[in-house]
Design brief:
Blueprint lengths: L5 H27 L15 H7 L12 H9 L3 H18 L4 E2 L8 H4 L11 H16 L6 H6 L7 H5 L3 E5 L5 H10 L3 E5 L9 H5 L5 E5 L19 E9 L2 H10 E2 L8 E2 L5 E9 L12 H6 L4 H10 L1 H5 L16 H9 L6 H7 L2 H25 L2 E7 L10 E7 L4
Parallel strand pairs: 1-9, 2-3, 2-5, 3-4, 5-8
Antiparallel strand pairs: 6-7, 8-10, 9-10
Helix pairs in contact: 3-13, 4-15, 4-17, 6-9, 13-17
């Protein structure tokens, strides 16, 4: 056999290097990926070994409950039970959803975007830009981000990125094309960004972000459910901000666990704590009809309020009514709309004369919409309570009018010793 030529030798060496690099990439991905680490459990009392068993491929004990299954369960209720559930929703909402305020922000730092003084190749859709700006404006008001004046006061060589910006890195969950992070980098000077997204997108912000000489960008193509954020070596030890715009359904719960949960301690109970590197978070929630009991962070809190697993599924199904309504103008406030429970109780609940489907069909669209919003807010306030239990200062606000987006609520949080 002839000895390999120099060219062949070089080619083999190059191929070895590529393979080694690819294996290293896979190794890093395996470090960051831990199957179902943020998924939660259907039963808070489940043992770790039980969870491992039910998460095996082919297991169907924790299958997601589809919207159609939820609808059939609601329509299968008796009229009296349906009325009692509506009464419970109203009572719980009145108890825990009192302090949701309007907080529409248009920070000066975002003028470069609002005035379209940006890369003309970047897409500009006003309703999305308004939402992004208000998310960042609320973070600024909450003390997580510093505006240009605040950064100038810290702008010395000795100052760290953390001191200049409030945070040195941002992790955007469900990042999609990454335009929320693009605005954050353009307007607040963030230098390190991590985009978490399981899908591949065209027309994304990466090209523009990578043109920034001082910015480091890393995409983590992984499901949030499987992401071990503590294993991302390039983020380890760095103060970071977690953000997400319109994190659909359980993605919000998966993100909260990813940032805050201590997974499966020795007593097999999941705890949460304020990660010392997490400086703050802002999550715009949406698509509550997709939420699942297994993933939901605040099962214990809702259970203490008397809401069962089955009622939770019904509540998530009702939330679809909120976005079915006409949002050309804002809906009336919840106290201004009296659901016609009295007529339902008088006509239906006594003798179960009509089924729940008929009761729902006879409800006015605005009544269904208001009930849907009440259910969405109950779900989100439960999440807020879980984050608060983790040791963070929290707030839940309506960050844009319904006419901009019916999915218009924002969960924000920070460490109490932020600065």
């Amino acid at each position: 056999m002839n000895p390999p030529s120099a060219l062949e030798d070089s080619h083999a060496s190059s191929e070895t290097d590529v393979n080694a690099e690819f294996k290293l990439f896979l190794h890093d991905l395996e470090q960051e990926e831990e199957r179902g680490i943020n998924a939660g459990r259907d039963n808070e009392e489940e043992k770790v070994e039980d969870l491992v068993a039910i998460n095996k491929p082919g297991s169907d004990s924790l299958d997601n409950i589809s919207s159609e299954m939820k609808r059939r369960a609601v329509y299968g209720m008796s009229a009296p039970d349906f009325c009692k559930l509506i009464e419970k929703i109203e009572a719980v909402h009145g108890l825990i959803c009192k302090d949701i305020r309007d907080s529409y922000k248009m920070p000066e730092a975002c003028n470069v975007w609002m005035k379209r003084e940006i890369d003309r190749k970047l897409p500009f859709q006003e309703k999305h830009v308004i939402q992004q700006a208000s998310i960042l404006g609320n973070l600024e008001e909450f003390g997580v981000l510093k505006n240009a004046i605040g950064r100038e006061q810290c702008d010395c060589e000795e100052a760290s990125d953390d001191e200049k910006n409030g945070v040195s890195a941002v992790v955007e969950f469900g990042a999609g094309r990454g335009y929320l992070t693009q605005m954050l980098a353009d307007c607040y000077g963030i230098k390190r960004v991590f985009l978490v997204e399981r899908k591949s997108y065209k027309l994304k912000a990466d090209r523009s972000l990578r043109q920034k000489e001082s910015l480091i960008l890393e995409r983590l193509r992984i499901d949030i459910e499987d992401l071990n954020l503590n294993a991302v070596e390039s983020l380890r030890g760095s103060p970071y901000l977690a953000i997400g715009k319109h994190l659909c359904g359980p993605a919000t719960d998966l993100t909260l666990r990813c940032c805050l949960a201590e997974h499966f301690s020795q007593d097999s109970v999941e705890h949460c704590s304020a990660n010392r590197n997490l400086r703050g978070l802002a999550i715009a929630t949406c698509c509550h009809h997709l939420c699942q009991w297994k993933h939901y962070t605040s099962k214990k809190y809702l259970s203490h309020l008397g809401i069962t697993k089955e009622e939770f599924h019904a509540i998530t199904w009702f939330t679809s009514w909120a976005v079915d309504a006409d949002h050309g103008s804002d809906l009336p406030e919840v106290p201004d709309v009296k659901l016609h429970l009295e007529s339902i109780e008088n006509k239906e609940c006594g003798g179960d004369a009509s089924g729940v489907e008929d009761i729902v069909r006879n409800m006015k669209a605005v009544e269904r919409a208001v009930l849907g919003f009440m259910c969405k807010q109950i779900i989100d306030m439960g999440r807020l309570m879980w984050v608060k239990e983790c040791g963070l200062e929290t707030e839940f606000v309506k960050y844009v009018p319904s006419s901009i987006s019916p999915e218009n609520h924002l969960l924000i949080a920070k460490h109490t010793n932020q600065f």
